[in-house]
Amino acid sequence: MFNITKVIRRFKWSASEIITDRKSRFQGRHIELQNVEDIPKILQDLLKEHKSIARASHPHIIAWAVEKDNQIIHGFKDNGEKGAGMRLTEMLSKHKLKNILVIVTRWYGGNPIGSSRYRHIINCSLDSLRKSKKI
């Protein structure tokens, strides 16, 4: 049987700096991903490991790209930030990334920030990818 916990410990998360705008905070991170079915366990382990993420208003806005049978399969979940997951998916496609899971966490600060949130979501995910030299 395949043990996802060993995989998670083998690969380290790469995290961005936190972006703050009108008291809302955003942080991006990514991890290698070989199998879409592993995502729920990866997210569960992330929340256990980082209690502050578990307390976030939007703990995981996610997008992924996995190569299977010579095709790239993309997917996303907005986690309450309508349209954010699709934007992350487009960013993964633009940079031709594969076998990766990108997660952005938002801690809502109480003040609406409009469409700026999408810019912050993309920028912190890009920061995470640059830190690990994925782009």
TrEMBL record:
Q: One GO BP annotation here?
A: regulation of translational initiation
Q: Which PANTHER family match?
A: IMPACT FAMILY MEMBER YDL177C (PTHR16301:SF17), IMPACT-RELATED (PTHR16301)
Native species: Candida maltosa (strain Xu316) (Yeast)
Q: Which InterPro entries match?
A: Impact, Impact_N, Impact_N_sf, Ribosomal_Su5_D2-typ_SF
What protein name is recorded for this chain? Impact N-terminal domain-containing protein
One Gene Ontology CC term in the entry: cytoplasm
Spell out the family assignment given in the record's similarity comment.
Answer: Belongs to the IMPACT family.
**Which parts of the sequence belong to the Impact N-terminal domain?**
22-126
